[in-house]
Amino acid sequence: MVGACVVRPLGEGAHELMSIAVQPAHQKTGCGTALLQWVIAFFHKSGASRIEVGTGTFGYQLAFYQRHGFRVTGIDRDFFVNHYPEPIFEDGIQLFDMLRLKLEYPGSAA
Ligand SMILES: CC(C)(COP(=O)(O)OP(=O)(O)OC[C@H]1O[C@@H](n2cnc3c(N)ncnc32)[C@H](O)[C@@H]1OP(=O)(O)O)[C@@H](O)C(=O)NCCC(=O)NCCS
Questions:
Q1: GO molecular-function annotation terms (predicted)?
Q2: pLDDT band at 30 (very low <50, low <70, confident <90, very high)
Q3: Which domains does the chain have, with CATH numbers?
Q4: Which helix (H) or strand (E) holds 89?
């Protein structure tokens, strides 16, 4: 296994991508993109209305989701401070706030 993801139903056809990760040795080889594309297609076929995800306010992960059509819907201030025991740093910058993003499937009113 090189990667995994966790998706939970939110009700009314919405699902949240809680976590997605690829083993470091396999990152930047297209596995994450393939997994995300599979998740998007799977829930579209299942009749879902949208997928939501939360990520940091900067970094390659933000582009990773936006490239697949996710749009920013809000910000959860201090999420990474309030929900993790240790400070989290990416590229030497501390993560404070979580951006909430949503991918709406075409034809969905959600
Ligand atoms: C996010 C993640 C799942 C993407 O998986 P991946 O297999 O690396 O993804 P891909 O190979 O399909 O690459 C997708 C893009 O991310 C970029 N990327 C991946 N890892 C990167 C890194 N460490 N630094 C900078 N860019 C990175 C790739 O270069 C690629 O961008 P490009 O198309 O412009 O070249 C993976 O990097 C990961 O597990 N990261 C740690 C956990 C994490 O941050 N999960 C998301 C939480 S919101």
A1: acyltransferase activity, transferring groups other than amino-acyl groups
A2: very high
A3: 3-104 (3.40.630.30)
A4: strand 89-90
